[in-house]
Amino acid sequence: MTMKKGKTKKRNIESDSRQQILDGALKLFAHKGYAAATVRDIVDASGITAPSLYYYFGNKEGLYMELMQTHCARIDQALESHMHTSSSAKERLKDLVDKIFLHVANDRDFFRLMFTIYYGPSQGAPYCDFISYHAKFHAAIKKIIEEGIASGEFQPGNSGHMTWVIRGVVQLAMEEQIKEDRKIIDRQGLQKILDMLLDRFERLPSVNGKK
Amino acid sequence: MTMKKGKTKKRNIESDSRQQILDGALKLFAHKGYAAATVRDIVDASGITAPSLYYYFGNKEGLYMELMQTHCARIDQALESHMHTSSSAKERLKDLVDKIFLHVANDRDFFRLMFTIYYGPSQGAPYCDFISYHAKFHAAIKKIIEEGIASGEFQPGNSGHMTWVIRGVVQLAMEEQIKEDRKIIDRQGLQKILDMLLDRFERLPSVNGKK
DNA sequence: GTCTATAAACTGATAGAC
DNA sequence: GTCTATCAGTTTATAGAC
To answer: Among A46, A136, A175, B153, whose Cα sits 20 to 30 Å from the Cα of B132?
Structure first.
């Protein structure tokens, strides 16, 4: 309250206590779960004490909500700013998927947390709406597929079903990426699988294909 | 200890307290998470008191582990006892997937819990090895695909990639099935998507296909 | 086996000094 | 802003009567 954004006195440079709490909390929420990650855990991991956490975020829920809002905004950004090139539907699909996958790989802890709360138990965490992001991603894929069908690039067919197939592959790749132990499938692997799959969707297979 | 399996005296028939605890616990673990579902929650939902829970299961972890072991054994059973018919690879794949999907749909709470602990935070729950089930399912799919390629039913190609695609669709269908709100994709829907997908894998498309 | 009563540890949260 | 000290409520778990 007294000073606004001057240099910190004692803390080692550039690392706001605030940010340290956010970092430690995300890691712990993602690996132990919202309920199992206690404020004690968080403040110990962040190298500060409980009152600082409550000073910045009000309570545990406030801390959680701020984490969600920050990272959700980044998803929005990534989903908005895709596709400027006017290449083939196949390339646009691969580009979109790659962008999202990279995003997940670079923010694994958040997506781990998001996925488990979206698909699983609430863990006592305050409600946070994730449906729109899944819907946006689904819609973006479907749109490209329908454009590909309209242009003759893809065989005619049920675009909804095709969308589910694409989303399925991506979902599985994301979830394997999110797991802490072994990442069975990586960025290139996912692209190769998409190549194979989209080749099967193309109009005249194995004529100009490179396979 | 005194009597072994005689009729219960006071409890309403056929509902062992033990089983009621298991039922209530699974529901709560699946919807609130292991850590957030307290012993109090469980005993309240089961209509018994805490000491009975500890009498039967030792502690919260023991209760959880027994739940896991029981339901995991059922997965084993389902995975072992598939495929007796010697029909086409496509039909065998659809049959396997249908069997598993039905299994998930009939034991939603358990799979909800299993999936989120496998892919997400531990929630403070004792470790339970789920990898083998995922591996078995993956291997079973891959085996059928390779047989289909060998017999000429499927186009030659990377069986590993094809397996990932199948698993992706199934994974997404399962997870949507597990969510409590809207089940977007059902049993028939999954089968239709598999039809579309496997048609694309077949050797000569659109000749004898039923579209 | 099932209960009442209660212990012992933990959890989210705050008061108040600096 | 950050700390020490601490509280009130909760959570896991048990002792002991019936």
So the answer is: B153
